[in-house]
Amino acid sequence: VIPKMKKWLSCLIITVLTLLPLRSAVGGWELSIPTTTAAASSSSNLRVREGSPFKMAIFADLHFGEDSWTHWGPLQDLNSVNLMSALLDSETPDFVVYLGDVVTANNIAIQNASLFWDKAISPTRDRGIPWATLFGNHDDASFVWPLDWFSSSGIPPIRCSPASDGDDGCAFGGTTRVELLLEEIKSSNALSHSVIGPKELWPSVSNYVLLVESSNLSKPPVALLYFLDSGGGSYPEVISNAQVEWFKTKSSTLNPDLSIPELIFWHIPSKAYENVAPSLWITKPCVGSINKEKVAAQEAENGMMGVLENRSSVKAIFVGHNHGLDWCCPYKDKLWLCFARHTGYGGYGNWPRGSRILEITEMPFRIKSWIRMEDGSVHSAVNLTSD
């Protein structure tokens, strides 16, 4: 073993032994963690501005942190920051949804992946725009060792957390979903609307609902936004039976008469997306611009689609995961199944980047969507509600 390797392996072994008790405690989560199973309080709700539509931007598959030990990796993150900044300045949304794979944790050679998560959030936070996040399959995946780290040319410098004390900050166990959200909420300047969901749904964490209030508080809410963790990374890519039951209970409590429009967000498409996917070209009734790969669906969604299609209040589902798809297609003439647009420079694919925009108008009620590209162009406009 070369001397550098010996020193580095010693650092790793000591770090792992040091962190095992902590990881065990974290696994049990005896800490006091802010979770919610009730409706959000009015102070945390979103609200339509009087005389203006409520606009949301979706940032999908940013994949911050890839190859951070090279020149290429940090450059990709910088390009993603510049892209998001341009999109935010063009659209000036009221709210931003980070639709999973915010980071590529299996490519991050430090314990604290929240350092990269924080960088991904920064364009939105710096503009004072509220946001919410949910998890994708890469956000808490275990670090995968690059083969060139074992080459004769030597090992690249280990980048440990700035807060670490000596070698003790070097670790590769990954950052859990709960840890990522705790760090996000703590550093959000009260702009984060993300919620650590009910413990009974863990390890599925980003399960919560946000209310969009009318500009006139005497009127009913304008919309309910449901966020679900579709798994991946530290556990299978599924929406569990427990999540389905949680959604049924939550939606029947908040919206028993189906009078409030509902929008659903998760990262990995369900198998229903395979059923409506265009075979080659995107033609009506589907709307979009790229159809460059097959749908990579969840392993199972345990009846979730059946629940959603039987709720007339559900207008659309939004997913990421497939970087080469950006279409919206109707599903059984009951709701729309939509992909976001690959936003980040991280991750696979060199298709032009952009963001799916959603706009909710109160009077008359409409939900419209389009895609804003990095170059400023707009395409794929679609009305997600019946006139």
TrEMBL record:
Gene3D superfamilies: 3.60.21.10. Keywords: Signal. Residues 1-27 form the signal peptide. SUPFAM superfamilies: Metallo-dependent phosphatases (SSF56300). GO terms for molecular function: hydrolase activity, acting on ester bonds. GO terms for cellular component: cytoplasm. Residues 55-323 form the Calcineurin-like phosphoesterase domain. Pfam families: Metallophos. This is Calcineurin-like phosphoesterase domain-containing protein.
